Amino acid sequence: MRVTTFVCAAAAVLAACTPRINTNPETGKVDVDMEPVTQRGEVWNAALASQGGSAVRGTATATVREGHTVAAISVTGGTPGAVHPWHIHEGTCGSGGPIVGTVNNYPPLQVASNGAATADAHLMLVLNEARAYHVNVHASPTEMGNIVACGALND
């Protein structure tokens, strides 16, 4: 009975772990670490390029950890006082893919006097490596169809 319990416990631990393999370039030795998936953050990055003659550009990240995703965005080149909604969407820039999560998860970017803005979104979901995602920055709450910056999220 103890052996069965131990084997089951070991299998459960291994199922919750994924190997991280590192090779020392000087010695050629391989190191395999079993690390719980929930402890490592998978980070997706995007470089946001200006769209449609806009000067808005920036970066975005999405960190997947422990069953949720935290997205962070930073832009420059905005008009002081402007408000820019932003979202992660499925698909590629220009594809019109659906928003990931809900609109309410994404606080709008409030552009400061220096033309910069930052925001974070907390999504109760995990991005899927088999899908493409992008970040859109919209012109304003009343001009959602006008994209002023976009970038592909890459893991």
Summarize the structure.
The chain has 155 residues and is mainly beta.
Structural account:
This protein is globular. The longest helix is centred in the first third of the chain and has 14 residues, at 2-15. The chain contains one helix and eleven strands, in the order H-E-E-E-E-E-E-E-E-E-E-E. The strands form three sheets. A seven-stranded antiparallel beta sheet has the order 7-10-11-3-4-5-9, with no helix packed on it. A two-stranded antiparallel ribbon has the order 1-2. By secondary structure, the chain is mainly beta. Strand 1 and strand 2 form a beta hairpin. Helices cover 9% and strands 45% of the residues.
Characteristic terms for this protein:
single chain, 155 residues, mainly beta, 7-stranded antiparallel β-sheet, two-stranded antiparallel ribbon, 1 helix, 9% helix, disordered N terminus
Tally of helical runs: 1
Query: For the report, how would you describe the main beta sheet?
Result: 7 strands, antiparallel
Return Rg in Å: 20 Å
Low-confidence stretches: 1-16, 33-39
**What class, by secondary structure content?**
mainly beta
Helix content: under 10%
End-to-end gap: 43 Å
On the 0-100 scale, what is the average pLDDT?
84
Share of β-strand residues = over 45%
Give the H and E element order: HEEEEEEEEEEE
Strand segment tally = 11
> What shape does the CA trace take?
globular
User: Which strand order does the major sheet show?
Assistant: 7-10-11-3-4-5-9
